[in-house]
Design brief:
five-stranded antiparallel β-sheet, tRNA-bd_dom, tRNA binding, two-stranded antiparallel sheet, NA-bd_OB-fold, RNA-binding
């Protein structure tokens, strides 16, 4: 790969805006065909609170997600899902059964929680 290709790939990556957020509120979404939870995520002073819908079957009780930090892809067009508009994409990876496992900042990092709105680099 030449330096031009590497530079282009880096520029593409820099356009992706992934931020740290803290789940401020979460509700079950039983009428969802795919999504199971509605999350209101605090993304800091710059972005504020945004809504996300996600399929989080292993996370059960929605109140257990409140206060947890998550990573979100921001800057996407809002997406209508049932009666809700999803404003950000909450990032997850599949477990061995294909169910979502949230992507989160390192909970053991020195200094504790990452500030809401922190950008992935």
């Amino acid at each position: 790969m030449g330096s031009t290709d590497a530079d282009g790939a880096l520029l593409d990556f820099e356009r992706v805006d992934v931020r740290v957020g803290t789940v401020a509120r979460c509700e079950a979404f039983p009428e969802g065909r795919y999504s199971t939870h509605v999350l209101w995520i605090d993304l800091g002073a710059e972005l504020g609170r945004m809504k996300s819908l996600a399929r989080l079957v292993h996370y059960g009780d929605p109140s257990a997600l409140v206060g947890r930090q998550v990573l979100c892809l921001v800057g996407l067009e809002p997406r209508q899902i049932g009666s809700h508009t999803s404003q950000v994409l909450t990032l997850a990876v599949p477990d061995a059964n294909g169910d979502a496992v949230l992507v989160v900042p390192d909970p053991n990092a020195a200094g504790g929680d990452v500030p809401a709105g922190g950008r992935l680099f």
